Amino acid sequence: MLTTNPFDDDKLREECGIFGIWGAENAASFVALGLHALQHRGQEAAGITVFDGKHFHSHRAMGHVAGNFDRDDVMRKLPGRTAIGHVRYSTTGETALRNVQPLFADLAQGGFAVAHNGNLSNAMKLRRTLNRRGSIFQSTGDTEVIIHLVATSDRGNNLDKLTDALKQVEGAYSLVVLTDEGLVACRDPLGIRPLVMGKLGEATIFASETVALDVIGASYLRDVEPGELVLVNDTGIRSYRPFEKVAPRPCIFEHVYFSRPDSIAEGQSVYEVRKNIGAELAREAPVEADYVVPVPDSGVPAALGYSQASAIPFELGIIRSHYVGRTFIQPSQEVRHLGVKLKHNANSALVRGKRIVLVDDSIVRGTTSVKLVQMMRDAGAREVHMRIASPPTTHSCFYGVDTPERAKLLAAQMSVAAMADYINADSLAFISIEGLYRALGEERDNNQPQRCDACFTGNYPTSLTDLTEKEGAPSLSLVASR
Amino acid sequence: MLTTNPFDDDKLREECGIFGIWGAENAASFVALGLHALQHRGQEAAGITVFDGKHFHSHRAMGHVAGNFDRDDVMRKLPGRTAIGHVRYSTTGETALRNVQPLFADLAQGGFAVAHNGNLSNAMKLRRTLNRRGSIFQSTGDTEVIIHLVATSDRGNNLDKLTDALKQVEGAYSLVVLTDEGLVACRDPLGIRPLVMGKLGEATIFASETVALDVIGASYLRDVEPGELVLVNDTGIRSYRPFEKVAPRPCIFEHVYFSRPDSIAEGQSVYEVRKNIGAELAREAPVEADYVVPVPDSGVPAALGYSQASAIPFELGIIRSHYVGRTFIQPSQEVRHLGVKLKHNANSALVRGKRIVLVDDSIVRGTTSVKLVQMMRDAGAREVHMRIASPPTTHSCFYGVDTPERAKLLAAQMSVAAMADYINADSLAFISIEGLYRALGEERDNNQPQRCDACFTGNYPTSLTDLTEKEGAPSLSLVASR
Amino acid sequence: MLTTNPFDDDKLREECGIFGIWGAENAASFVALGLHALQHRGQEAAGITVFDGKHFHSHRAMGHVAGNFDRDDVMRKLPGRTAIGHVRYSTTGETALRNVQPLFADLAQGGFAVAHNGNLSNAMKLRRTLNRRGSIFQSTGDTEVIIHLVATSDRGNNLDKLTDALKQVEGAYSLVVLTDEGLVACRDPLGIRPLVMGKLGEATIFASETVALDVIGASYLRDVEPGELVLVNDTGIRSYRPFEKVAPRPCIFEHVYFSRPDSIAEGQSVYEVRKNIGAELAREAPVEADYVVPVPDSGVPAALGYSQASAIPFELGIIRSHYVGRTFIQPSQEVRHLGVKLKHNANSALVRGKRIVLVDDSIVRGTTSVKLVQMMRDAGAREVHMRIASPPTTHSCFYGVDTPERAKLLAAQMSVAAMADYINADSLAFISIEGLYRALGEERDNNQPQRCDACFTGNYPTSLTDLTEKEGAPSLSLVASR
Amino acid sequence: MLTTNPFDDDKLREECGIFGIWGAENAASFVALGLHALQHRGQEAAGITVFDGKHFHSHRAMGHVAGNFDRDDVMRKLPGRTAIGHVRYSTTGETALRNVQPLFADLAQGGFAVAHNGNLSNAMKLRRTLNRRGSIFQSTGDTEVIIHLVATSDRGNNLDKLTDALKQVEGAYSLVVLTDEGLVACRDPLGIRPLVMGKLGEATIFASETVALDVIGASYLRDVEPGELVLVNDTGIRSYRPFEKVAPRPCIFEHVYFSRPDSIAEGQSVYEVRKNIGAELAREAPVEADYVVPVPDSGVPAALGYSQASAIPFELGIIRSHYVGRTFIQPSQEVRHLGVKLKHNANSALVRGKRIVLVDDSIVRGTTSVKLVQMMRDAGAREVHMRIASPPTTHSCFYGVDTPERAKLLAAQMSVAAMADYINADSLAFISIEGLYRALGEERDNNQPQRCDACFTGNYPTSLTDLTEKEGAPSLSLVASR
Predict the structure, then answer these.
(1) Predicted TM-score of the model (pTM)
(2) What's the count of helices (H) and strands (E) in chain D, helices before strands?
């Protein structure tokens, strides 16, 4: 089973990537390539649904896109000029397969397929109501709620039924929807999760990130806007804005970790923003040292920014194995107690006797940080200064990011000084929330933040009907030295 | 099937990694971890053989170590305090499985298992002779020749029979051999392929690279010396030197590409040597430019060396996908003509309008270089200067490295100037053979080179009984500008 | 894939067998054995759902019961004292798995699982209505209609909702239903498909045939009566008769072919009835011959009856291979033209020069009969007289039996005389419909037949809302000689 | 895994079936069909090797012929006009696969493939000698000894080398051997195991039984004679008799149980011989009863013979399930204590109150007989008289039949009277050894028996070098009543 490496369990995980295309021969081939480029957004299952003008065809599989959607026998069964696809995290087995998207239903008005990135924060409540009225759910996820709301809507066409359904949900959703009326792409009024629009010849494309356009040679047109529904079919492209206008709150963590560095998110180069974060961090939390060492691969751009701003040389003090796409279960008691280094290994020849600035993107549970600092010390580092390219993660996300419950977030439990002790670093610093906005070229509006930064601040942009956060974020000073 | 990405077909490939351990409970667990750390030396099959004091047990599988040798059901069947293992390249299917090492035979004197890194250059000739005498071969590889030579040797014990056998072979071999008399590690008289020795508590370990010691927390003792046989058993460790002494010729390409940067090869940090190569290259082939961009991941250390020596900023102008362990077969005609970028994508926001020095480790067929230069130009780069961290690869390897036949090596077909044209670079330069030796801290002895550098020079250290090189290396100038 | 042998494609196929048990530890184990004994009623998929007092657990698989439901890992996940199961025909793949029963739904009032033998003749119409109201179907079969009718019923408890649902359907259904209120078994008002009730210690059991009671050592209590619902739970066993009383019409073909000869169907030994049919046939269609030869295995009892009534010796003139559970696809053009005899082979030493009475249970398309007569002739038989233990099959079944469309039924296309010519028999005779009833100890009431004999007469006991038979049965004489 | 049903563990099992063909397009297709017809001789693995004029190709698989050798992808890789095949018993897993025949070796003189029915009684001794000389064995079976003897023979061509090898072995062997010199079929000097020769157009065929000729429409020519080697190639068919002539001793048990009833063995119809045995048994051990009931399917012909000779009606008192090709592991403690009847079920309606003669082919351990008698009694039988169509099995076979060690043979432990008690029968009788020969139309020559009947008499026709029988057969009276 392909899963994430144990070390990666100490990261927040985006739960999905989506892709849709209208108007290209063998549309499914483009979806497969696009999903492959979005694989970092969901590695445990993938699916594609096509419409060939008469029939809908779906294939869903546990595992990566490669190995499933590059097989001739699979792709031959997915004909047609329009298609949508999805990559996701999920658990294994038969039960899980019915949760793999795109979800598809044969409604009275025809087939209806949907792929969803995000999470509805009132799904449980809606589900109970629908269940009582006789709706039978196939999956255990929140996305199916949208389909049942569409199925039981009394509006006329699919677009109106979908709008009717979306007005009843709260939370985060970027969707691509396929019906015989066309391909619909839409984004919740706050625009929490991303969705971009591109063009390749006559074909119109929607994807979670611009890298999925790059991979097929498509050009980027614009973002689907918060609260916008775009309908594409053979009569053209139409835009709808059925929701009341609110100030958008796109997820700030896309820049910190989720998006690929070669993506353009909300109009900005993710790579450049991450370098800016590193440079801000160098200014906010300078330190005398010999080398700036990134935690590969996600810490590299911020480390480069820190190095360039501080003039401390950038060096690879930690080498990452290429072969940890698969989890390696440590096979016996004899080896389990060893500090086994399956994913990362210290470049001891370099590190020995040196003062190291270690740059990582975030601290979630802190388990990885403890090991990395120890690895540097075992390799002979004289000092280890940890610098984190995001503010302390103090709150869970309810908008489609897999976060541990709050009690397990290190920054929800202790101060930065205590964290520095805990991970055994000579110093530890996080970028401030203001510094993070500065790296994006903005000044944070504390009354009305321009982004969803709830994981750092507890300021959730929607009500949380199904779940209730009990406490606010602890007040924390952001830099600790010892 | 896990295989290498198409782009990697344009790399030379190490054909094997080996690992052996004597004297640890659950020895197979350590072998599994060690092989995992050597996975880059052979990704298509793996095997472990153990000896539990009475019986030998083997498990061999197509695919990676993870997913095969971290399964409880597999590892439970591999008990004992001594074990050897192997990772290799090979083709798929039932036929292939019988070629997966360790090879094992029930000889009259007991079980005999062997794992081999290298290639015998007179295997076909020996095989024909053995065959005529009634020996029946199970596998199609060269390693089985050693077993039949041992089986038919009239010497007394296993060590003497093995020595007798090795005196008949020519070529490259680092071996770990398991019999009920003990664990034997040995290296051919020229020491072409590497083999290091380590210690973990009471256990003695042999591995192709030091990273396999690091991963289990073992300490590095020394290299097994060229022409040395080391026998380990419960009575201790003994060293034998049964071959006539010759000047060693370890493979220089281990430093350029095969070994992991965090390994110590022939006593030198691979990372440091690669940075030195970059620095030498900056001196030998300077250029005015805005950014030094590595071809990830193997080009990174040389690019850092180039950047530091030239003071041109190091930037990630190419982003590598993490999800290309699996080959992705481009699924249809519609997408095949696109310049699909499954493994590498340009960081366009960075590259646009800039002069780029692109640093890669080697050029084999040149197919990747063509695509990478074009990718930089498509992303808007103003100039693209290619710098290669090895001399032109003009000759095939017959010592355990998978090289294309000579006619397919770009540098065997054309001058550096013609290559620059071919890959459409504004300039192209390779490090000189002398520069490469300088990066290793040596001056090349042209009469008696200290390394096997046959792939760059055609100077083969052994006769090539089975194969005959027809031509010498073309004379080439190493830097071309246009 | 386990499927039926090609020759069996020339048989009518029962589409399902069901089994339910209340009140035994490890209930699923009994269901597995019961389904194994019912395997002849459906060989392509099987499923079991259990209720452990709190949760429902299901396992469904393509293939036989053995190989799926005798695996420890599967059975351990099916705990509890109450369980239902199902064997069925279906096609392969993911699409099919969602059609494998028991079907299960999480309704507002709790879990609801159902296993169904039979077919609803107004399912399509009901499905369209439910679909328009917003019900989303998961499967493509008729059984799910019952679940949605239950889910949307406004009655109080599950039993009332189920009754409400069943009053809306027409056709054939024997059901076992599992909810947290108990185990319900029921049979449609006409009792078209069988369902028996048994006892093993404290446990109550329902099954399609008595052999499923035999296999677990349970005793037969009585048939579930047409139109009866039996509810079993910890408070006891209660019987309900919510439907208007009508004269029952149990399927007569259960005696001819579907049921195992060791079953007791509608109170009569299937073996004895089949022998009676053979004896009747000997009287209705006598012939001078040397041997009575059964088409194995289903023709054996009727052949024994024919032999005993006619005093012509019973001999095995055709030997059946035991290894045709799996279809053997004839592998190449070279062998396809041969009259390959994978399932049946002539006992040539016996047959040569002899006059043979060949006894089979039915003729559907006639393809098998052609081959069998030819096989006897090739083996040297002097005369071949075919005797069929059922009347000509002239009409399709819409009550849960897989029949070809009417145009493909040989008896719907030609007279018995023409059929004799077609299969190249010296004579051909079918038992008369009156003779068939006599073998059952009854006289057929032509105004109000005591059985459903629609496949022989076209006299369907329900309206056929979804499908309409266009023509009546052709008038045929039942014996032809030439 | 397809294995035999537990009840079948109480049968002697033929260990192999072989098939070879020369001179037909797509030869492998004919082999596949032939092996399918021989499936009863070995159900756990199968293999085919072809020679296409230049190369040898093999496919071997665990499991049945159907499901493996009817797959297009498999058969396409087996081209050519000449082929051999094998079905066998063996254990599961990777280890086993290397034992699956045909065995193939690349000898100095070219490819050499062999399929073997029988067992060598001096294989262990030969293996030790070869091992000491340097031969390395791949498999654990006896057949590979022949290959190594061929490989190390100093004779000229393959036929001479094979003859040289066979002169060194003792025991039973029917072989088909494929080399580039032609197809060789041969049978040991005693002709212990069968081998027949047939013709289909231009093609020559060899097979273990005539049913394998029937299935492909080939005609039977003659038996390969004991001690004969037949070489077929494009220059014609030649016969060789290199061994000293001895009186043949073909296995008598082929008639009793192994061969299919529709086969002709040693010139006699197996069906007819079995009927004769039944008739002899009726004369030797008559009894007053209501029904003669066969233990299906192997007891049917003898029961018919008994019925016809005694005029007691033949009836199916035991029904055999068709779905026990797969073992069904009884899934839990709760059901294990039940007398579960997965393979056989009593036809209770018939048996109740009746006196039954139960006819079976043999008693090995007696476990099945105990259950069958009890099954008849539970079903209400008034008396149960067991009649066995072979003499008491008192000795193990060392010629290719899987027999339990002697201590586990019921007849080696107790008298017939004690056996009758043990199985709880009202009477028990075995046919006498003289009666068995009479059924074959012969009078047993007690000094020089015409058949190998060692399993009944302990009179082994060869020395048993590897194993030594310690005791003779106990003297037993053959009929017991109580």
Answers:
(1) 0.86
(2) 17, 24
